[in-house]
Design a protein that fits this description.
399 residues, alpha/beta, Rossmann fold, seven-stranded parallel sheet, two-stranded parallel ribbon, 13 helices, 13 strands, globular, binds nicotinamide-adenine-dinucleotide, binds 2-acetamido-2-deoxy-beta-D-glucopyranose, NAD, UDP_G4E
């Protein structure tokens, strides 16, 4: 079992659950093996090949990770995705495998990054040149309800990945961080030297992971790029991938998800919380970055990563958009007259957050190109409309 691998499920008292889980995983494993053209030639992944850069993408079945994988494959990288599908979608992996069926292009490994033994085994059996570490749990609201899940799945798992990289001599890391590590800065826009004072477990867990990476880096010859994303929206323009979070995460969801759910009629409308902020229209201001631009920043970061060097970059448009503007763009993009309720403020929200993207433009020659909110939402909506079930059984919206 080379191209598929899975970790022992965590100790659970429920035997029946365990058996069911094992059966499901075995079935899935067989299914994937049957469909995986790579299975017959694992050597592509286990040896370095001149001219081929092999990237480990953790969390590659998730929203951003799957988009990054597509871009890397298009740019002729070799990709191994590791994901435990706790939040990602096997359907996204299938789409990618169908697009790049040639041997040695894409490999999927089912494993939990919390399982250090499994991770070390993956690193010993594969010859990675670089790691893009996306895997994480990523909802601010959930992080305040279940902080340990965040410190475990973000901070502790990053440590596991770093230890495996050190042990197996993998020298380039591109790390997914977030503007949530800045907390509530007094001065806008946010630059990379704005003090990091995170105010929720999500931001704190990411900040701690950054600190671990930076400390480790001081005495190593690793090339590190830390990208702090602002609010990610959109999907791939050709409509093959989209954002499909688990239904149970909807309540913690992000504004674009809520907008699409409202347009679909799953929820009765949008609730805008807070209209008395000190902003031009009274609603909160955020910086929305299109996922296509975001993955472009990752590829540029990978190309420019240098041994013994750390690059830390904000990835945003540099332009703040109010929630009211977002809602208007959403109405136009979906063509649905979404009902909007204006409610009092929600505790913990800050008025204004937007990036100063000067550093990444100067050093990586990257700028956001997909900055038309309505267009980004329109592209994402096109995918949502024909994937009402996410990556599950196809279901198309009528009318
Ligand atoms: N979406 C945003 O707006 C945003 C903003 C800033 C930063 N980020 C960061 O970007 C990264 C990707 O976010 P996303 O929006 O694509 O989230 P996502 O939930 O869609 O993807 C995360 C993926 O990681 C996998 N995963 C989680 N824990 C794992 C584990 N222990 N072992 C193996 N796989 C595991 C999940 O199954 C999922 O496929 C995260 O690190 C997140 O913190 C996202
Ligand atoms: C995914 O990993 C987490 C640990 O980070 C684990 O608790 C969870 O059970 C795993 N999910 C699956 C489906 O294996
Ligand atoms: C890690 O996150 C997954 C969900 O993505 C969850 O099932 C698991 O319990 C978390 N692990 C821990 C140790 O909290
Ligand atoms: C910067 O990127 C643009 C495309 O966005 C390209 O035309 C230009 O040549 C690049 N400049 C450098 C110095 O690489």
């Amino acid at each position: 079992m080379r191209s598929m691998d899975y970790a022992d499920p965590k100790k659970k008292s429920n035997i029946v659950g365990k058996i069911l889980m094992a059966a499901t995983l075995t079935a899935m494993c067989i299914l994937m093996l049957k469909q995986s053209p790579n299975f017959s030639s694992p050597s592509h992944f286990s040896h370095h090949e001149p001219g081929v850069v092999h990237v480990l993408v953790t969390g590659g079945a998730g929203y951003i990770g799957s988009h990054a994988t597509l871009r890397l494959l298009k740019d002729s990288y070799r990709v191994t995705v590791v994901d435990n599908l706790s939040r990602g979608n096997l359907g996204a992996i299938k789409v990618l495998q169908q697009l790049f069926p040639e041997p040695g292009r894409l490999q999927f490994i089912y494993a939990d990054l919390g399982d250090a033994k499994a991770v070390h085994k993956i690193f010993s059996e594969n010859a990675f040149d670089a790691v893009m570490h996306f895997a994480a749990v990523a909802y601010v609201g959930e992080s305040t309800l279940d902080p340990l899940k965040y410190y475990h799945n973000i901070t502790s798992n990053t440590l596991v990945v770093l230890e495996a990289m050190a042990a197996h001599g993998v020298k380039t890391l591109i790390y997914s961080s977030t503007c949530a590590t800045y907390g509530e800065p007094e001065k806008m826009p946010i630059t990379e030297v704005t003090p990091q004072l995170p105010i929720n477990p999500y931001g704190k867990a990411k900040k701690m992971a950054e600190d671990i990476i930076l400390d480790f880096h001081k005495n190593s010859d690793m090339a590190v790029m830390i990208l702090r994303y602002f609010n990610v929206i959109g999907s791939e323009p050709e409509g093959r991938l989209g954002e499909a979070p688990r239904p149970e995460l909807r309540e913690h969801g992000r504004i674009s998800g809520a907008c699409f759910d409202a347009a679909r009629g799953i929820i009765s409308g949008l609730k805008v919380r807070g209209t008395d902020y000190k902003t031009p229209d009274g609603t909160c201001i955020r910086d929305y970055i299109d996922v296509t631009d975001l993955v472009d920043a990752h590829v540029k970061a990978l190309e420019k990563a240098k041994p013994r060097h750390v690059g830390i970059y904000n990835v945003g448009t540099g332009r703040g958009r109010s929630v009211k503007e977002f809602v208007e763009a959403c109405k136009k993009a979906t063509g649905v007259p979404i009902k909007v309720d204006f409610l009092p403020r929600r505790p913990g929200d800050y008025a204004e957050v937007y990036s100063d993207p000067t550093k990444i433009r100067n050093e990586l020659n990257w700028t956001a190109k997909h900055t038309d909110l309505q267009k980004s939402l329109q592209i994402a909506w096109r995918w949502q409309k024909v994937h009402l079930n996410g990556y599950g059984t196809p279901q198309v919206m009528s009318a």
